[in-house]
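Input record (one chain):
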Amino acid sequence: MDGTFNENDLSRVVEADRAHIWHHLIQHKPFETNDPRIIVEGKGMRVWDQKGKEHLDAVSGGVWTVNVGYGRESICKAVYDQLMKLCYFANTAGSIPGSNFAEMLIDKMPGMSRVYYTNSGSEANEKAFKMIRQIAHKKYGGKKTKILYRDRDYHGSTLATMSAGGQDERTAQYGPFAPDFVRVPHCMEYRKHELDGAPEENFGEWAANQIEEVILREGPDTVGALCLEPVTAGGGVIEAPEGYWPRVQEICKKYDVLLHIDEVVCGVGRTGTWFGYQQYGIKPDFVTMAKGVASGYAAIACMVTTEEVFDMFKDDASDPMSYFRDISTFGGCTAGPAAAVENMRIIQDENLLQNCVDMGDRMMGNLQALMEKHKVIGDVRGKGLFLGAELVADRGSKEPVDEKQAQAVVADCMAQGVIIGVTNRSIPSRNNTLCFSPALIATADDIDQITDAVDGALGRVFG
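The corresponding structure, as predicted from the sequence alone:
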């Protein structure tokens, strides 16, 4: 075997995959008797598998990434041209695409000023965690090392980011975890009845006040940062209720707690603004991003912060321990920022932020219509082209459907040629939310095809 395949010899590709590939998030036992799925080609909103079957992709590459769609020749050309000129140099030095994209990015993020390049969302979040810990030593005498994170939020798959993981099924069997990561309650209004003492009114402010209670319990002099998703993604597509974000910021300011917003999913257009935090008037100290930064055309992630934070690491050069002593090897790849520059240009020139708003409104309306038709839908929620529909066995009690039924809806849509998502191995007995994140290029026909497929699937699975 020479390691190359004729593109028409897909049977060999399937067998090589079965024999050698360890896929993400999949139990491989069924592959002993069933073929793994191979995605062969993508164009626009659609992908084709090894059997030639066409699918409309309603989850942007399976994990909310391909924001501008497949087959963008201009991005591919930008990457090719850059790689021919300079493929890599460690980020101890600069590069032309690195400088270009940083300037473009900061222009979209008033109040932020510095970009630290890395290669994955997990790693971007770890960079922020490390900076927070180093600030605790530099400014607070080793105190304020604790980092708060929220129930149902997700920040990555490394041991440190799982230490800040609010999804218990994702972290199960991987402990023990790093110390000084402390959980705060979720802010999911639909399931506020599961939180002790939650009020019927002003829930958003109450949920934020639970963060203050944790800070007081832990000791304000020990808490350095709060890490939150602007819209909780894999934990159920949860938008914070009214009153939450203003109170969160008041609390952070009161107790000198840095605010870290994880935009790995929401960043670069997904909610209809460049970043999800901009929907809610949030002024963060750290913003991390990955998936949509280059729409999957090259690996890139960024940790972005303020000049005030940056200045904390600019000390007398005579102190060899004063700066941020960190490196990300593949943060020096030039393909990522080259792709990101063109990705951002496409979003601007094609007015995709507005399309995200318009098509998000259409999809929300379609899902609300399905909710009126199918009692199994208990709630629809989200922002822009990032939406969820929670399935329940009973609307009164809000008892979730069996997870196998939610998975059956996904499988039925797949059989119809539409790929949708569902919360998976995240929250015990709460993996019951259908997830939708089509590319920002989606048309009205695409949106209708997605929700029509869900309509048919719900009718067949639940009768």
